[in-house]
Hints:
Mean pLDDT of chain B: 93
CATH architecture of the domain at 5-43 in chain B: Orthogonal Bundle
Oligomer: heterodimer
Distance between the termini of chain B: 38 Å
Structural class of chain A: alpha/beta
Largest sheet of chain A: 11 strands, mixed
CATH topology of chain A: Amidase signature (AS) enzymes
Order of helices and strands of chain A: HEHEHEHEHEEHEHEHHHHEHHEEH
Structural class of chain B: mainly alpha
Largest sheet of chain B: 2 strands, antiparallel
Radius of gyration of chain A: 21 Å
CATH class of chain A: Alpha Beta
Distance between the termini of chain A: 19 Å
Number of domains of chain A: 1
Strand order of the largest sheet of chain B: 1-2
Amino acid sequence: MRIANQTTKAVDLVREALDKAKKFEDYHCFISMNEARALEKAREIDEKIARGEEVGRLAGVPYALKDNYLSPDGVTTAAAKMLDNFPAPITATAVKRIEAEGAIMIGRSNLDAYAHGSSTENSYFGPTKNAVDPTRVAGGSSGGSAVAVALGIVEFALGSDTGGSIRQPASYNGVYGIKPTYGTVSRYGVVAMASSTDTMGCFAQNADDVNLVMDVMAGKDAKDSTTLEKFWQPNLPETKGKKIGLISDFMGDGVDAEVAQGVKDYAAKLQKAGYEVEEVSIPMLKYGLAIYYIVQPAEVASNLSRYDGVRYGLRSEKAQDLDSLYQETRNEGFMPENKRRILIGNYVLSSGYFDAYYLKAQKARTLLIDAYRKTFEKFDALLCPVAPAPAFKFGEKTEDPLTMYMEDVMSVPQSLAGLPSISVPAGTTKNGLPIGAQLSAWRGNDQMLLSIAKAVEELS
Amino acid sequence: MSITREDVLHLATLSNISIAEDEIEPLKQKLGDIVGYISQLDELDTEGVEPTYQCFDMKNVWREDEIEDFEAKREDLLALTKECEDHQIKVPKVL
């Protein structure tokens, strides 16, 4: 990562990023740009450097911010009509932390509205194009951030991952993405989706850059009681000889042959880099998606009940009385996918269905976590694809929500168990589409995964 | 598992979302598909298994009851509302 110093000017780094953002405007990575403030911040950093003052570990580094992190000077939209004119009154803790180290946000990046989706096609502001093949989707929900890094506009970008929203777009665009252990980074000031699996992470071009950004963001925050004491260390641990399980359940039926081959090739590289790789089957994983599409909509229905047209955000002009104010505002402000998730969430939570769906899913979640716990008695890390196939064409999966949900089948189990999981580039298909390999570990072993990925990086 | 027209309307009421007539049929079908898929958990034996509502075994987190300076000012927060009078948010009639 290029960091501003005596010879590298922050202003030049920011100008370069802004120029590239303009050059790649057609990809629609950004919902809004932050040009004036970014340049002003860059000048301040350059002046500090000139005076010989401390400037932080990310001094002058331009970055893209997923537009569901509340941030000052501008609007935070969550890519939803509901918030299309919402100047955030507070700043997310993660943003405060990276900006305190000198990083400079150049723009707010596109996402599926409220982070509901796996393609960024659910954005109220229109989709983001894939960095490698613009006729295909960026993946999602953090599509804008992934593409901004893949196109080289910025060297890192922030995202949020509830069931794969960092990992899947990272894999679709050939960059690194991390979903850390649940509780690693504060959720304070990020638009809530499903609170029990929402995690904050980042995209970058290599393991060291991911490590640096995460080290800056990680740690306890009094404003998010689920945050863990900081376990992140500045340096990556030594991991040679660790045992990695290749999940056979995710390598067969329903998985694109080229994706499976890419992951097998990655496994071979792991062996070459000094790791032991052995196949393992975890039958419980096949229930992950069904559990997730009960738990997550239930939490979404609860979290999105705050958008009522009263205190902030959209207020429908059609309102006649208080009830219609709520109902019309929510009808106009949410995208169809937001509404489906709210309705399903209220279905599984409603009396008569609660035990059969919500409670059943939370019990099944316990079985899933137990299955992981047992597997990690024998293995240090697990390997599988990030998604069953490479990036798909626009519109291919928008008609049938269930087909879109299938995108998440390999990324939601880790989320339900609170495990760290990273997406790393693992070659391309014959047509040049990026393939992503996914490494997961037990809670707190995030940096082990980055160390393993770095060992593979160093082979080439 | 099928979702009926009445189910859709009931869920819309529970969700406080007005739904247009032409949205009901597609929702019936799509929600039905989703419910069909998630019903596969029926095959799992969860007898005697404790539910996991959150991954870390957290209990209530307490703090001293002290007033903290919140970064947003009252005026900034009230400025986010559409209609406001004397620090009160105005809404249309309730009844």
